[in-house]
Amino acid sequence: xxxxxxxxxxxxxxxxxxxxxxxxxxxxxxxxxxxxxxxxxxxxxxxxxxxxxxxxxxxxxxxxxxxxxxxxxxxxxxxxxxxxxxxxxxxxxxxxxxxxxxxxxxxxxxxxxxxxxxxxxxxxxxxxxxxxxxxxxxxxxxxxxxxxxxxxxxxxxxxxxxxxxxxxxxxxxxxxxxxxxxxxxxxxxxxxxxxxxxxxxxxxxxxxxxxxxxxxxxxxxxxxxxxxxxxxxxxxxxxxxxxxxxxxxxxxxxxxxxxxxxxxxxxxxxxxxxxxxxxxxxxxxxxxxxxxxxxxxxxxxxxxxxxxxxxxxxxxxxxxxxxxxxxxxxxxxxxxxxxxxxxxxxxxxxxxxxxxxxxxxxxxxxxxxxxxxxxxxxxxxxxxxxxxxxxxxxxxxxxxxxxxxxxxxxxxxxxxxxxxxxxxxxxxxxxxxxxxxxxxxxxxxxxxxxxxxxxxxxxxxxxxxxxxxxxxxxxxxxxxxxxxxxxxxxxxxxxxxxxxxxxxxxxxxxxxxxxxxxxxxxxxxxxxxxxxxxxxxxxxxxxxxxxxxxxxxxxxxxxxxxxxxxxxxxxxxxxxxxxxxxxxxxxxxxxxxxxxxxxxxxxxxxxxxxxxxxxxxxxxxxxxxxxxxxxxxxxxxxxxxxxxxxxxxxxxxxxxxxxxxxxxxxxxxxxxxxxxxxxxxxxxxxxxxxxxxxxxxxxxxxxxxxxxxxxxxxxxxxxxxxxxxxxxxxxxxxxxxxxxxxxxxxxxxxxxxxxxxxxxxxxxxxxxxxxxxxxxxxxxxxxxxxxxxxxxxxxxxxxxxxxxxxxxxxxxxxxxxxxxxxxxxxxxxxxxxxxxxxxxxxxxxxxxxxxxxxxxxxxxxxxxxxxxxxxxxxxxxxxxxxxxxxxxxxxxxxxxxxxxxxxxxxxxxxxxxxxxxxxxxxxxxxxxxxxxxxxxxxxxxxxxxxxxxxxxxxxxxxxxxxxxxxxxxxxxxxxxxxxxxxxxxxxxxxxxxxxxxxxxxxxxxxxxxxxxxxxxxxxxxxxxxxxxxxxxxxxxxxxxxxxxxxxxxxxxxxxxxxxxxxxxxxxxxxxxxxxxxxxxxxxxxxxxxxxxxxxxxxxxxxxxxxxxxxxxxxxxxxxxxxxxxxxxxxxxxxxxxxxxxxxxxxxxxxxxxxxxxxxxxxxxxxxxxxxxxxxxxxxxxxxxxxxxxxxxx
Length: 1193
Fold this sequence. Notes:
By secondary structure, the chain is an alpha/beta fold. Helix content is 33%, strand content 20%. The chain is built from 39 helices and 49 strands. The strands form twelve sheets. It has an eight-stranded mixed sheet, with helices on both faces. The longest helix has 33 residues, at 849-881. The radius of gyration is 38 Å and the shape is globular. It starts with 7 loop residues before the first helix and ends with a helix. This is UTP--glucose-1-phosphate uridylyltransferase. Keywords: Cytoplasm, Nucleotidyltransferase, Transferase. It catalyses: alpha-D-glucose 1-phosphate + UTP + H(+) = UDP-alpha-D-glucose + diphosphate.
């Protein structure tokens, strides 16, 4: 019987009787069921679906980086809450309790890693990012016990439970608990979409908002890639995005995952359940829908509060039918990602795949426990030795499903850095120190136990097949171990080795093959004929295997590191290098030279001392992997060669920037540098660079370029590209020559002369190939002519305005190997590359002294010109914008004025008036305004002091008068200066603060940061920051327009470019001053004239205008961490006090409407409107007395 809305009253009545549910849970459950029964669902019209633009799904790489300024990072993190979804159990992996307590790596659980990550963030940046765990009723009790062990950590851990809803009996549509099912099976947590109302109902949401938190980062606790990302957080804060979903490129394993779409002008999540049947295959395609939801979400806390209170989060309902204890039940759930369409200015961010590393099964556990990942400060980091951007595909049989079984079947986790896929089924057991490479399948027949021995190396599409048991057959294997039954012997498709072995390794594979085939023969009637067949096949297989398998590298001498300089890389390999020229710490030009095919760091180049001295050049030459004394790389590619260069530069500390120069086949790593490490380059030079004929070049160009080579060379390059595993056989077989034997087909006469001179140095050639031709030259060809991850025509110019440099290609016009037309095409596509065409020069152009010097001079002269231009501009800009240091105060200043020393070493000057502070009933700290000081001319009469028993404390704010400047002055620092001054002078736990004009912003700071210290606050004609976030824009626009145009420009400079304010205030090109008549009334002008006659005007600016008035403007009009309308009333029943705002109705600077709006939003602020008063009202005796009386009463 299908349920309808008629079932709702019966259901509601039953739910009302469930005492286990809270009122919020009852309401939420009934609303969910009501929506489900009414058939409420969004209908998607397929034709209206659009692919989101980069503005909606922002590429991660295009987001602005976070500066290295610790204080800026701290400010970002102070606005963040981290929330982990912790409601799931580990039962699917054979564990009890919350899944988050499963040990992931090195004895640490998911929860351990999360706490360590946040603890390290808090420690590094001096912040207090809280961790929140959303539990379910299934995980609550266990989690509460577990978090106790983190009591001494530097992390505030909060927990709350998501809702607990009753499962509904499908046939009767009544809550199962009402039918007597009162244990846990009668209930369910309603999906992670419940995070928003549950967070609000727990009270945590309001708590975090009151603490100044703005965003919550929500992620599954089992996603090891879901870590705090400062780039994303900064982007959201700057762009005021209420919701952000992290998405990542979809693979074939993710085709069912939800994706982001643009629909009717909004971004929203599209799940497969919403897709019409006829479009399901299109949805699963990775061509149209290229991204999927990682469930890493960033959400604005105030937006959550607004939407939950308005009951506006109507996410799609996911009906989840189940059968429990033989009863068919229904549970209704929602997903947090579906909420994206209800938030304003919501976006997605297309993040790297590394941010999605969930552990849902033991196959995932194998990935993260292997050498594919390392653990640093709680963060799981991928091994750089893995060149494949995707993780291996791992499929383990049901025997491995439970964690305990999984761990028992591996003596140690195998090495899988070079693994593509692994499929294991049956009763399989792994020994220790096993290495898995390529595609591996291991299958054990039912009832048969199969063991993979210690130290085995299983490589590339190895298939394991089970032999047929033979009760009388026993065999001693070639490595000397015995098997009890023949079915324990494995047949290997390509390679099975056991670590480094001697020459018996080939016999080992051959021997196993014969043994396996013999077992098959045991069942045949014609055994002799089959034996001959087996022998023939075995010999053929053995010959093929011997022919195509490359030899191991020739070992280097044990003392090789004593013979030549070598540096150890992070993956354990060594690179040999040679340094020439100027010391690297004094050199102006640092050039890394990449040798060509069959060469080495000893390449014979005409590097003269005159050239070195003229341009102060430091040269670094090194043996690329497998050449000379550099260790080979087993999976060498253009990317690995590129990162070898970067790591070598870092290890030798040559600096953040360098120029790379590659010749011939040695030029392909230069393309790699332009692609993968452009930020490290000061320039790049490609000399007669290789052409990969499988780039996306016009077909006629690539065809004609390839035909420049002799036919033998063409075939060699084709083999290297299409069949790299066959290249060793091709280069060593005797049937066809791999290269043309006539040098004149590939070299000019001058090339031949240069080659003859070059090859006279036999030790250079011998040194370059000392480890064998395969790991050096042949691997070089494979890397250069392989399928690259990019095309050179797609490269971006690495040298923008803020990253000076240049790229050059040198083309020899008589070169018989490199097509000039292709180089012209590249430079046409990439106009930022400068092409140099050299007449009467061949492929070995770089070995000609005059040409080599031209190449080096071009590099250095351009760098010198750029350095000179940049230097002059930088010097002028620096001189123009750098503020002067503060004018020193007299040495005896502390003797002449009362000053108190703060904890950071600065001094504040102050003045006390009125009643003694230990007897006063009213203690008022007065905060002076712009261009003023503690000596402000105010009417503090003795009668007023005596009447209200007032103690006044006046002080010079940082940089004013005799108070030391604060180099990082902000609203917050001014606030804490007030609190520390009060404590140092021991005026008591409570005080009243009064601030005027620009001096009012610290009063806002006190209400935000130290409300517990206040007994009251008064804001007199307070400043308006025109960039407050929650203020209506039309009000702010109207407020700024009442100011003179030149003053508006000054405030915009202070807000958007504070580092430029000193230049703006001192330059002569644009007006910065204002006509006082435009901003002051007639009475204001009279008061100002009286006021400016006082000598204290000079005193307040004695340290210079920058550290006083200009820094004051920056602090007041910068980006605040909060908005005044977000302030909470600091005066509850237990904390008596009041807040007053004084508005002068004739004020020409402060718009009354803005003050009215603030007081409307914050009704606990009392607004005093004063007629016939202007901006200087506080200097009028009657108005000043009214302000003080209001504060005291």
